Automatic annotation (TrEMBL):
PANTHER family cross-referenced by the UniProt entry: MOLYBDOPTERIN-SYNTHASE ADENYLYLTRANSFERASE, UBIQUITIN-ACTIVATING ENZYME E1
InterPro entries, A to Z: ThiF/MoeB/HesA, ThiF_NAD_FAD-bd, Ubiquitin-activating_enz
Name recorded for this polypeptide: Molybdopterin-synthase adenylyltransferase
Gene3D superfamilies, A to Z: NAD(P)-binding Rossmann-like Domain
NCBIfam families per the UniProt record, alphabetical: PRK05690.1 (NF004281)
Subunit structure: Homodimer. Forms a stable heterotetrameric complex of 2 MoeB and 2 MoaD during adenylation of MoaD.
UniProt similarity note: Belongs to the HesA/MoeB/ThiF family.
Any Pfam family the entry gives: ThiF
Reported function: Catalyzes the adenylation by ATP of the carboxyl group of the C-terminal glycine of sulfur carrier protein MoaD.
E.C. numbers: 2.7.7.80
GO terms for MF: ATP binding; molybdopterin-synthase adenylyltransferase activity; sulfotransferase activity; thiosulfate-cyanide sulfurtransferase activity; ubiquitin-like modifier activating enzyme activity
One Gene Ontology term, aspect cellular component: cytosol
Amino acid sequence: MLTDQELLRYSRQILLQHVDIDGQLRLKNSRALIIGLGGLGAPVALYLAAAGVGELHVADFDTVDLTNLQRQIIHDTDSVGQTKVDSALRRLTAINPEITLVAHRSALDADSLAAAVSAVDVVLDCSDNFSTREAVNAACVAAAKPLISGAAIRLEGQLSVFDPRRADSPCYYCLYGHGSDTELTCSEAGVVGPLVGLVGSLQALEALKLLAGFGEPLVGRLLLIDALTTRFRELRVKRDPGCAVCGTQHG
Ligand SMILES: [Zn+2]
């Protein structure tokens, strides 16, 4: 049940017929795992905490650096030198003390990643490198958990949702195949803050839709954002029956 305080706190989204009290209760009983508390993970964590997702699991093994603050808006100047997890927990608790926060402070290996993914209802990949994204995707396919994947670099953003519970859904590997970490990351190539904020906000929105059960998720579609011209494009993405990660699962 929702307390009077919760009814008031979340009243502006409960007002929406698509959410209502049932949807808010579903959010309260939901658990989300956020991998990475950088430029994407910052708005994801802030919005999911504010919206009342009952359990937020956050994973990051990095510390806050001064160069992060231009885009990683969950951290502030006083956070520099702290772990990103501790910095984020302080901010998330201040925003919403009603929710439960679970911290993963060390790098996740295959076993701990599988356990972390199994413990939640949805996973948000907010990391900045291919090897993490591939490992997270494999864990989500194995545990049949939906994965909301976002990326932003320079002035381009990408977003898609992979849902292994659906037979028609591709996985991250169907789309990208085996990537290479020789690709530049944001910290090497540069990125504008509002673009990662935009992609992260859309990831949070997709999570709320999946968890509360409304709308049409971005499954089988890849959203491409060109910040330079403010143009959004959408590509259809099909499941690859021969995919090395999800191919055998569905036969
Ligand atoms: Zn696949």
